[in-house]
TrEMBL record:
Pfam families: Lactamase_B (PF00753)
Protein name: MBL fold metallo-hydrolase
InterPro entries in the record: Metallo-B-lactamas, Mito_Persulfide_Diox, POD-like_MBL-fold, RibonucZ/Hydroxyglut_hydro
Residue ranges occupied by any Metallo-beta-lactamase domain in the UniProt entry: 17-206
Originating species: Pelomonas lactea
Keywords: Metal-binding
SMART domains to which the protein is assigned, alphabetical: Lactamase_B (SM00849)
Entry-linked PANTHER family: PERSULFIDE DIOXYGENASE ETHE1 (PTHR43084), PERSULFIDE DIOXYGENASE ETHE1, MITOCHONDRIAL (PTHR43084:SF1)
Gene3D superfamilies: Ribonuclease Z/Hydroxyacylglutathione hydrolase-like
Length: 293
């Protein structure tokens, strides 16, 4: 029997993030991709407005959430994976190399001894090429490192959810200068995505539209090959790496990197409360930025 899925996108205009609900039409089973937890840095307050939009959609459509998929440990928004799991169920999954990211940031934040960089905060760790199912629809996890060492893309029913590898063709690609990031690896990962059939729908995790264009998140492999400003056909690895490294050297540290990473390497869980019952996030002084991260 031919499988069919629907994809619903949810754009968060505070962090320019796109989350998705993928639903298998026959079984009404679903996967959520890269959900956002609202965070006001000024007050240190979290909120669930974005996540509640996803929950409303899931309930309206009568979907059963099987998976909450993270493409990577995001540095620009907090994940609402844990909150969504409490509300809807499903297994929180990410790529197996998250352990490397956890080890890096456990050290950087001097996290508590009880935080183990072993991936056990997640319900499932995907290996490269692993096949899983959303209802009756087969899906595949692809390792696409470069932006971070642990990025995954998810291929589902003629679509690929690329996380922070490719952006829309007029925006290009993600930065590759975070700890463990690598422009050469990102180029190879992008080639892997662009080797999918040309009609494959490409769904990105962010859009930073140029002036005059509304936010958008869907293109195709063919469109990316023809027009991506960083990696269209004919751009060599050497050209890409030179461009990416020069551009990354000009980019500011993301506003929410410190709070995001501390929550996202715990699968969307805030740090354990201290003896007053309050959870705290750390701000390491003079550690990241200024060419050090
Ligand atoms: Fe990212």
């Amino acid at each position: 029997m031919a499988t069919s899925t629907t994809v619903q996108a949810f754009f968060d205009d505070k962090t320019w993030t796109v989350s998705y609900v993928i639903a298998d039409t026959a079984s009404r089973c679903a996967a959520i991709v890269d959900p956002v937890l609202d965070f006001d840095f000024k007050s240190g307050r979290t909120a669930t407005q974005q996540a509640d939009r996803l929950i409303a959609h899931v309930r309206e459509q009568g979907l059963t959430v099987q998976w909450i998929l993270e493409t990577h440990a995001h540095a620009d928004h907090l994940s609402s994976a844990r909150y969504l799991q409490q509300q809807l169920g499903g297994r929180i999954a990410i790529g197996e190399h998250i352990t490397q990211v956890q080890a890096t940031f456990k050290k950087l934040f001097n996290l508590e001894r009880g935080f183990l960089p072993d991936g056990t905060q997640f319900d499932h760790l995907f290996q490269d090429g692993e096949v899983f199912h959303i209802g009756e629809t087969p899906a595949q996890a692809l390792l696409v490192p470069g932006h971070t060492p642990a990025d995954m893309a998810y291929v589902v029913d003629g679509a690929v959810f690329v996380g922070d590898t490719l952006f829309m063709p007029d925006v290009g690609t993600a930065r590759a200068d975070f700890p463990g990031g690598d422009a050469r690896a990102l180029y190879a990962s992008v080639q892997r995505i662009l080797a999918l059939p040309p009609e494959t729908r490409v769904f990105v995790c962010h859009d930073y539209p140029p002036a005059g264009r509304a936010p958008a998140w869907e293109s195709t492999v063919a469109q990316q090959r023809a027009a991506n400003i960083h990696v269209r056909n004919g751009i060599s690895e050497a050209q890409f790496v030179q461009m990416r490294q020069a551009r990354d050297a000009t980019l500011d540290v993301p506003t929410l990197i410190l709070p995001s990473i501390q929550v996202n390497i715990r699968a969307g869980q805030v740090p354990p409360p201290e003896d007053d019952g309050v959870s705290y996030l750390k701000i390491p002084l003079n550690v990241i930025g200024a060419g050090r991260a």
